[in-house]
User: What shape does this take?
Amino acid sequence: MKKAEKAKRELIGNEGMVLLDMVRRLNRRSATGHLLKLVDKTHPADTAWVFRHLNEEERSQIFGIIAKTESVGEFLSELDEAILVEIVQELSPQYLAEIITKMASDDAADVLEALPEELANDIRRHMEKKDREEVDELLQYHPESAGGLMSPDFMSLEQNLTVGEAISIIQRKSEEMEMVFYLYINHEDGKLAGVVSLRELLMNAPERELKNVMNPNVISVSTDTDRGEVAHVVSQYNILAVPVVDSGYNLVGIVTVDDIIDVIREEATEEFLQMAGAGKDREILLKSTFESAALRAPWLFASWVGGVMAIVIITSFEEELSKVLALAAFIPIIMGMGGNIATQSSTIIVRGIATGRVNMNEIARVVFKEMRVGLLLGVIYGLFLGVVSYFFYNDPKMLGIVVGLSIFGSMVMAATLGAIIPLVLKRFDFDAAIATGPFVTTSIDILGVMFYFYIAKIILSL
Amino acid sequence: MKKAEKAKRELIGNEGMVLLDMVRRLNRRSATGHLLKLVDKTHPADTAWVFRHLNEEERSQIFGIIAKTESVGEFLSELDEAILVEIVQELSPQYLAEIITKMASDDAADVLEALPEELANDIRRHMEKKDREEVDELLQYHPESAGGLMSPDFMSLEQNLTVGEAISIIQRKSEEMEMVFYLYINHEDGKLAGVVSLRELLMNAPERELKNVMNPNVISVSTDTDRGEVAHVVSQYNILAVPVVDSGYNLVGIVTVDDIIDVIREEATEEFLQMAGAGKDREILLKSTFESAALRAPWLFASWVGGVMAIVIITSFEEELSKVLALAAFIPIIMGMGGNIATQSSTIIVRGIATGRVNMNEIARVVFKEMRVGLLLGVIYGLFLGVVSYFFYNDPKMLGIVVGLSIFGSMVMAATLGAIIPLVLKRFDFDAAIATGPFVTTSIDILGVMFYFYIAKIILSL
Assistant: This one.
């Protein structure tokens, strides 16, 4: 079953590859006319995908063609930031201003935000006053807030209008609007009053007033709501767009579900990278070797420092080690079992926090559960190892008990700390995802090794 | 800046807690009337959130109240599977059939799919023939395919109708449809011909024929398309719903964007868990200690076996170790640096595959980049450690060189393997996410330790 589905997915991946090959071939033959036709009938999102896989020289040539099409604006807004910044280097601010003016203003603001500040200001100077003001309005918000996500192109009407009047206004005006499927209704003073879907509007008699057909329990967010929270609202309530209000409850924009999907994907990618201690730059794959190494180096440094501490600790037990050399052989398994169960626990908790399944008022319950899992698995794998080493390494006789107890102790400790640390980080407003990075796992490693040597010292009376 | 946003998010979390407390308090006082009112005005998705945090006894009491409201069907469809299965144990199949019949048929099919087969069949027997057939139709598809996701409640009309006729049909019929914002157009023989949005429909003269106003380039998926691919299509093209066609290109359902958001979140959660070697059960937090331990045990077993192999390897170097006891102290840092850089590389690649950023035809480029990063970071941290140990552990004199070289070698090897393994898994249609689990990191640990002792043996001429 799984097999067939995967093959299907591969096939669609292949369609992308076919398109990429075709673009490359036409470009090598300098078949500009054919390329133009091809780009024209390709969705800008697909063109952006192809573009990502071209080399720098090809990109510059192909962009010359894309620039001639209607969809150049949409194409730019689909590009990865790193590629966008690379491609605009060669273009004049005038020309860029022309393209950006034609884009939806939220996309235009996003592009300007991604560019180097100086270039962005140059472009803004070349824009008409009205367009510039609209974009500047959006640029004032933090890019990770509802204000930074929203589009100001929405449809809102006063509550005293009738359904018939509303429909005829929509027929005249909705061309410039983004995704009209909800009509927002406001009070006479401009405050948000309710919402009605286009479909519901059509199902009401033309003479009814909007205030009598609208749903007054409209879910809204404010301009400074964090984008993760906006995503939560949209997905929790299955809505297609959420209105954004300012401090005076006036409607200033809407965030549509397509942008929410991007937010969810981007936040997941950031969380993945953070959990692996690889920074949180979503475009790390597009970075150079040096940039990638620089993003990853700090986390490895934490691990390096931890390793040096382990050297110091083990060296301090040199005497014990010299008496029972076999102790060295068990270091990897004690670290490995502790590290792996800690990663399991912290990943489950971190993801639970991200998806709202871990309730911060139930910390004790969650931690005790992980501790119990650690106890259970610690007993099993500790016993396993104790028995195995009793049979194969019975000199000294108590070695089996030492390593069994150590595995048990380090797994219980690791599972418990693995659960506690993300919760503590979250409580103090840090990113819980850091908890699974090298910093924490390394600390758990060190504690495990220390515990092991102490147990050995005591039980073997070294 | 970050601080303010976080505080905001916390506040909304608090609203959930306030609701939870209120429900608990009213329940303790057996204030049924108040509870009923409260549930009635709460969104079913929020009620489901509260429900997740109640204990078993409270759940059974509160469900008695929820069952009296109109939204009980929607509430059930928002529940986690584990809780759904728990709550239905107490209900009669007749009663469940009654609720399920009132639900949207795709939600009804999802609920039936989640229940134990025997109970699901009991419920099906109590449903009216027409309802049962509709649900059975959906149940025939794999739950992870477009067929398993789709809703059969869509609006499609023949292309020869006029805009005016279409609008009046929508006004009469759309009540029972899910999220009508696209109208699908079919040929006389029933095959999918095009799509038009409700807004575009309104903007055309009533006498125009649908075939002249529709967009004939309609993006569709087939019933057996994998749900991940459906999510990809919806997010790539920023659409609100995608039509699902059968093998004859007849429209049989639509997948709406709200379901896509769930798919994206669920797939990310599964990927997280798999990467941590914690199974792939999204509801692991709701499982008992035993169930959770059982899901995690196999992965830890891989790590345990790896640890035992490390014991064997280190023991085989006992003689060398007895001559240079200090070698033991460096085992943790060599394992740690290798393990951490491998996790970084494989996470970056795994996420790149999931988001379509890693192109399977560019494997060599991607792997060499990771190898270069490994070389660069290996030189840096190897040099660091070599110098530090030269000054503090200069007996034997070459120990610094041994550990420096070992860190370097194990990091290059780990970064390279960390990149190669997910790509190989993907190539052979396995889940790339397994690559970051304990199995692979443990193998890398073992290789690192082996490499270290060999280098020591050679350089120190032990």
Q: What stands out?
A: The mean pLDDT of chain A is 88. Residues 284-459 of chain A form a domain with the Tetracycline Repressor; domain 2 fold (CATH 1.10.357.20). Chain A has three domains: 12-144, 156-264, 284-459. The longest strand of chain A covers residues 192-197.
